[in-house]
């Protein structure tokens, strides 16, 4: 049963890894890997000395930290609240509604968000005007100060419900006798969550935290590409992935883009190893 997944990963994740060679070449599209001249670390030096480097790194790190700091605990809190609902039908309805956005593509989500924030009869602007909080419609997706909040909030709304399923499954595996014993000892619901639920699902939380730290430079691609269509947002929206896309596919600087992408991959592996080592001291780790 595992074999198809292993074959898929081998074909689409491991075989293409020879492509990192172009980061050390002046890659020529018609010359290929064997006829392109080797230039060593020229493109890495160009990337580090680029005036865009610090802007791209700042946006990548800030957006990733916002997603980690706000987006990571959100599904845990949702799972804890869903676990407290005793009406089974209501619980199923809330769970279905919360994880349904995960199955929508970012193109659809971006269209919905753009429509809601539109200055032309957008629901958000209409509500704010009715409440007299603003005097004229605001073009939210054209204001750099609002972009990080819109991006992170949309991502949390889209993925929070689906991620909560894993935590709900972990909570379901907790021995109910622990709650009964705690109730007999006088522990309320909040105390039971603090002393039983959270400690029992801590291994799952730690594993997801390790993966989240390892992906800290993966600030996003599809969501940013869809929401940041206005060029005025580039100073706050350009991250490593979108920068690689623009340099490689739009400007045809394949080797330069490959060097930037390889740098991100190396740093991500280092962060993953460091997070796993720290988690091992807490009793849970990936390896």
From TrEMBL:
Location of the ABC transmembrane type-1 domain: 57-275
Presence of the UniProt keyword Membrane in the record: yes
Classification via Pfam families: BPD_transp_1
UniProt keyword terms in alphabetical order: Cell membrane, Membrane, Transmembrane, Transmembrane helix, Transport
Membrane topology: Multi-pass membrane protein
Listed transmembrane segments: 5-24, 61-82, 103-119, 146-174, 195-217, 254-275
Signal peptide start and end residues: none
Principal location class: membrane
Gene Ontology cellular component list: plasma membrane
One annotated GO biological process: transmembrane transport
Coiled coil segments of this chain: none
Matching SUPFAM superfamilies: MetI-like
Subcellular location: Cell membrane
The family this protein is said to belong to: Belongs to the binding-protein-dependent transport system permease family.
Descriptive protein name: Protein lplB
Species whose genome carries this gene: Paenibacillus donghaensis
């Amino acid at each position: 049963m595992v074999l198809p997944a292993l074959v898929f990963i081998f074909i689409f994740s491991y075989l293409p890894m020879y492509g990192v060679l172009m980061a050390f070449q002046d890659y020529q599209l018609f010359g290929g890997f064997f006829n392109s001249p080797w230039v060593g670390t020229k493109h890495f030096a160009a990337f580090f000395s680029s005036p865009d480097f610090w802007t791209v790194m700042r946006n990548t790190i800030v957006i990733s930290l916002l997603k980690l700091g706000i987006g990571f605990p959100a599904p845990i809190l949702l799972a804890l609240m869903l676990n407290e609902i005793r009406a089974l039908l209501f619980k199923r309805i809330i769970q279905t509604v919360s994880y349904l956005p995960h199955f929508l593509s970012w193109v659809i989500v971006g269209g919905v968000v753009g429509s809601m924030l539109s200055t032309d009869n957008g629901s958000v602007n209409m509500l704010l005007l009715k409440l007299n909080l603003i005097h004229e419609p605001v073009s939210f997706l054209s204001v750099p100060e609002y972009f990080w909040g819109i991006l992170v909030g949309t991502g949390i709304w889209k993925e929070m419900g689906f991620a909560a399923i894993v935590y709900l499954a972990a909570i379901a595996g907790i021995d109910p006798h622990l709650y009964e014993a705690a109730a007999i000892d006088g522990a309320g619901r909040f105390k039971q969550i603090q002393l039983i639920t959270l400690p029992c699902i801590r291994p799952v939380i730690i594993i997801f935290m390790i993966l989240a730290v390892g992906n800290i430079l993966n600030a996003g691609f599809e969501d940013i590409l869809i929401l940041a269509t206005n060029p005025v947002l580039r100073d706050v929206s350009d991250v490593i992935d979108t920068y690689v896309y623009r340099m490689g596919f739009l400007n045809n600087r394949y080797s330069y883009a490959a060097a930037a992408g390889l740098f991100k991959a190396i740093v991500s592996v280092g962060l993953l190893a460091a997070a796993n080592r720290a988690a091992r001291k807490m009793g849970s780790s990936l390896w």
